[in-house]
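Good morning,

Both structures are done.
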Amino acid sequence: MALAAAGGCAALMWSLWSVFSDSRNVDVLMVVLTVLLLVAALTATLGGPDDAIERAAGLPWPPRRVAHLLVAFLVVVVLPLATLATGARFGPAWLVVRDAAGLLGLTALGAATIGTARAWFLPLGWTLAAILFPRSEPIGQILTWQAQPPGSTAAAVTAGLLALGGLIAYAAAGPAPRAPAEAAQQ
């Protein structure tokens, strides 16, 4: 379901740009929002239906969690970059890679700390604020890294640190256990 939702989001954004724009190159802010939608669609896959299974296994979980995040990263990157050969180009490639890594790392960090159900809140809020209030001074480039131009070193370092932090936290701890009331609803 998550892959279908991600593919549907990418197709919808591509269709909207193809129909309503005369430009072949998609606006940077639309690229950022598309990456955000793809990450949000895949967030549900970071946790399983049973917390007990997440805590016990015959084989170690950390390598599987790392592989899971890498596959999610590839999905988020490949879908927009596949459009580079079409009439609506979601690029530049470095922007897609940077934002996918940073937003996925932020989501994984959220899954490890506040749980999978709420892991998408921080990436959504932070990205919307970055788009609405872009900044160009050095601290502003760090705080609004998602919406910075592809050549921004501060944005790349911030995204890299978030990606690394999220990868380590999620691989080591896994998703945070759900509250008993949340688990009972399933």
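Second structure follows.
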Amino acid sequence: MNGFEKRTEEKKRKILEAAFELINGDTDTGNVTMEEIAKHANVGKATLFKYFGSKDNLIREVFQDFINQLITDAKEIIAENHSFEETLIALSQNKISYLDKINHQFYMRMMDFFTKKDEEGLSLMMQKFNEVNYGMLLDLFHRGRKEGKVDLKYSDEFLILYFQAIVEGISKPQIYEKIAPYTEEWTEMLIKGIAPRKD
């Protein structure tokens, strides 16, 4: 990356951070103006349009960036190679810490964005899940099997479908409006649900 590209990336990062602070603030997300974001980021309004094209695009980038940061942290947690249970709990705590950073309105607007369906009926959340999580989850399941924490009767295909069903279920407004406070509980149920039976 040359000096110009680096400066461009730094400026975009500054804008995304400023937009996040304002959108996640007390103001109604829809009422945040490009002028306010430009002022908060200490850049000209024209710069916002140059980099993002429109307010809607900028807000989408803020949501994408938030999820990408969460995913990056999740990948780091999995790479630390702790036990299966420790890893799932750390992933759950990571999600909780991210949810703690945002207000309810930001969360609802972001979920609305990520759960919109495309022509094939897949939500953006599901697409992201498929592209990022498949390999990570397989590694985690294999680790769980080696440790005796994941029942050998469950195939990789079933476990992936199980996780996809959870993600798809969470993408319904009547679910995602209520699920955030229960991240720890559903992680615990998940661990118990795929564990071998103790007879």
